[in-house]
């Protein structure tokens, strides 16, 4: 079969690999869609290598249909539509036993250590099947929408940490796929107003279509805009959805007394940010992080997509065949589209 293989830093190509089968306890998926994200861009450019095994098949936002059910696996049948939560945790470490499995230091991640979804088929290892990482969805859900359960689950995990309350003003810094998901979650949670800041006009237009108001930060001072919109108080919540360290300082400066700031985006390794620590001290701000998601978040994400409660259809703007997986990842970096799906059956 064909698959996108990581041969080494900056060396990524579609090549022929042995077609896998499902062993005992395993599931084999016919991949329907694997959406690509900023992490894949960093991998093909050779900027991210830590934790990625040479020879691994890339792709961690995967959905497909069950092709084979391994011996001893219950609850799945050939043809079931499923999504895969890509973080396969140990279940026994300090983090896992304290409700923080999303940061399990022993986790194996699909597309990093476990062969991923940028392939015609993929095997879900027995440990992942046993841990409940494979989640069924109603068969009518478009498979490239179901792939977005992964980024949605990460946003849900963060959303629960930074909280949005009825009537809140929420500022989203960045209108990429992640910012646009946080925007929808905030509005559904009862935010009175969501202000999205992004220099891209097409992306701002999508945010507006969801009900947000938008700001072009290259033309308007975001801090001033937020102060004007809130009678000088500041926003209740600010979510940093682009990995630019200075945005963290911006976010701290635009929230109200007792406001909440979430550093959702990953920053380049070794990055530092200059912040005014007294903003946190005197204004009693709460600053939270975000990394991956729990299996429960993933299950909730599948449900929200199946129910149509979060509009993912508007986020999937491009579809590429598997042979063009590298081009698909490059296209996602160009910022033309929002979310790009690689679909082996195209
Ligand atoms: Zn991703
Ligand atoms: Zn663990």
Automatic annotation (TrEMBL):
| Keywords for the protein's UniProt record, in alphabetical order | Metal-binding, Oxidoreductase, Zinc
The coenzyme or cofactor needed here is:
Zn(2+)
Tagged with keyword Cytoplasm? no
Identify the residues that the record assigns to the Enoyl reductase (ER) domain, covering every copy.
Answer: 8-342
GO MF annotation, one: zinc ion binding
Q: Name one Pfam family in it.
A: ADH_zinc_N
Q: Which InterPro entries does the record match to this protein? A: ADH-like_C (IPR013149), ADH-like_N (IPR013154), ADH_Zn_CS (IPR002328), ER (IPR020843), GroES-like_sf (IPR011032), NAD(P)-bd_dom_sf (IPR036291), Zn_alcohol_dh (IPR050129)
Q: Which CDD domains does the annotation name?
A: iditol_2_DH_like
Please give the superkingdom of this protein's source. Bacteria
Is Oxidoreductase one of the keywords UniProt gives this record? yes
SMART domains documented for this protein: PKS_ER
* Similarity-based family: Belongs to the zinc-containing alcohol dehydrogenase family.
Q: What is this protein called?
A: 2-desacetyl-2-hydroxyethyl bacteriochlorophyllide A dehydrogenase
Give the taxonomic lineage as stored in the record.
Bacteria, Bacillati, Actinomycetota, Actinomycetes, Micrococcales
């Amino acid at each position: 079969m064909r698959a996108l293989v990581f041969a080494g830093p900056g060396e990524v190509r579609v090549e022929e690999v042995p077609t896998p089968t499902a062993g005992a306890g395993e599931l084999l998926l016919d991949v329907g869609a694997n959406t690509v994200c900023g992490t894949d861009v960093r991998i093909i450019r050779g900027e991210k290598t830590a934790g990625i095994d040479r020879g691994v098949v890339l792709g961690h936002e995967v959905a497909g249909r069950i092709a084979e059910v391994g011996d001893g696996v219950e609850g799945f049948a050939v043809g079931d539509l499923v999504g895969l939560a890509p973080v396969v945790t140990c279940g026994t470490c300090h983090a896992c036993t304290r409700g923080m499995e999303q940061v399990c230091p022993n986790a194996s991640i699909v597309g990093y250590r476990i062969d991923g979804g940028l392939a015609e088929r993929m095997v879900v290892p027995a440990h992942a099947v046993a841990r409940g990482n494979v989640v069924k969805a109603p068969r009518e859900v478009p498979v490239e929408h179901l792939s977005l359960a992964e980024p949605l689950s990460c946003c849900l995990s963060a959303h629960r940490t930074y909280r949005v309350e009825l009537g809140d003003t929420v500022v989203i810094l960045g209108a990429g796929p992640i910012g646009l998901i946080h925007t929808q979650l905030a509005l559904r949670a009862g935010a009175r107003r969501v202000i999205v800041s992004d220099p891209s006009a097409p992306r701002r237009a999508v945010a507006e279509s969801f009900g947000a108001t938008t700001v072009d930060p290259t033309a308007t001072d975001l801090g001033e805009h937020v102060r004007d919109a809130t009678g000088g108080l500041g926003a209740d919540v600010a979510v940093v959805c682009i990995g630019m360290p200075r945005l963290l300082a911006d976010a701290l400066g635009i929230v109200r007394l007792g406001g909440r700031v979430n550093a959702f985006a990953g920053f380049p390794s070794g990055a530092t940010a200059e912040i005014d620590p007294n903003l946190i001290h005197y204004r009693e701000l709460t600053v939270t992080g975000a990394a991956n998601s729990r299996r429960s978040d993933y299950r909730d994400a599948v449900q929200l997509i199946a129910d149509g409660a979060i509009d993912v259809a508007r986020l999937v703007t491009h579809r590429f065949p598997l042979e063009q997986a590298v081009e698909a990842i490059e296209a996602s970096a160009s910022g033309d589209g929002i979310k790009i799906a690689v679909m082996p059956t195209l």
